[in-house]
Amino acid sequence: MSATGWWLIALAVALVLGWYLSYSAGRLDRLHHKVESSRAALDAQLVRRAAATVEVAQLLDPVTGLLLADAASRALSAGEEDQPAPDRDPLTVPPYLEEAENDLSRALYLALDDSAAVTELQGQPLTADAIAVLAQACTRVQLARRFHNDAVAQALRVRRKRVVRWARLAGHAPLPQMIEIDDALPPALTR
Length: 191
Fold this sequence. Notes:
Blueprint: H1 3-57, H2 62-81, H3 95-111, H4 115-123, H5 125-159, H6 162-166
Helix pairs in contact: 1-2, 1-5, 2-3, 4-5
């Protein structure tokens, strides 16, 4: 084989390798964007759940309402503290955010554990709407968290590939993190 033939083969291999690396880098970039988008959607759903909790807290007895309102306000303030600083990556999950959301989930479970009280609230026209909005917000939090964790799992799967690691296609981007919160619906809201 002549020298020109070898150069053509080397050029073809280099082009295929360049295309594959470019495709992999683009895919990884899209996955990172998907993680950021799903995180923003999850944050919005968490805020919606906290706001719906405050509305329902006003309808309950004072002690239970205060418990729910306090947990909701701590979750909202944890979300505000979570605003990205210039030196912090927006994909990192601070532990106080998960803790505040878990506290809100526990407070909802404790406050709305009594099916009879929730059924009584659902029988009144104005409170029924607030309970329905809260149930919908809790369900949306579950879905948003699943979508976010699925996006993180996809990004992590691609980042574990040898080609991505060897060619350093992720650059200096930190690993995305899954968000593990207790988002179970209280039994009274599942009806």
